[in-house]
Amino acid sequence: MHRLHPLILGLAGSLLILPLAAEAGAPTDQLRAASEKVIRILDDPALKSDGKALERQAGVRAAVADLFDFNELSRRALGRHWRPLSEAEREEFVLLFRTLLERTYLPRIRLYQGERVRFVGESVDGDAAAVQARVLNRRDQEVPVIFRLNRRGEHWLIFDVSVEGISLVSNYRAQFDQIIQRASYQGLVTRIRQKLATGDAVDEAGFPAATKPK
User: Fold this and answer.
1) For 11-36, how does the pLDDT look when each residue is reduced to its tens digit (9 = 90+)?
2) CA atoms within 13 A on the CB side of 112
């Protein structure tokens, strides 16, 4: 069993607060811009107290809100179960899944302890891109990370993040497929709503923990 690194998995939090330094193209430039916004929020003395935690999270959420393609992320996370859904059901799921991700990972911005990111490559193929990076912690240990993005108009939006070979989308797809197979799509929706109502994090409240692919 291998749990995803809590810092790196903070999609709207931890990874995007790390200082970015490297020459790169448009996809990496957008990651850098979001990072700078988040750093300004976390460095704000007025938001550093524990009593300002929710306000700090709200600031980070706003800073990275336009960086993710939640429609594409949701479609890929549901896999084959996405196609039969009506437009209304798809809109409902995107909102639920986005809220689930934010509730799970935004609080983890508090775990930042000075990690650094080193970009090692960027590849662009038409409207798809992948940005390869290494996260260096205080013990000089490197963790490989890959951001996958699609071009939407003039912007590049993240639809997946892989850490040490573990894809966020693939991990959720496996969990969601298992629940739908055992119950139904509505059973999955009900379960997500229950998680949100209780405030539990998805990997700490009954969903399978992440594992490395065999």
Assistant:
1) 334 454 455 444 456 888 887 777 67
2) 24
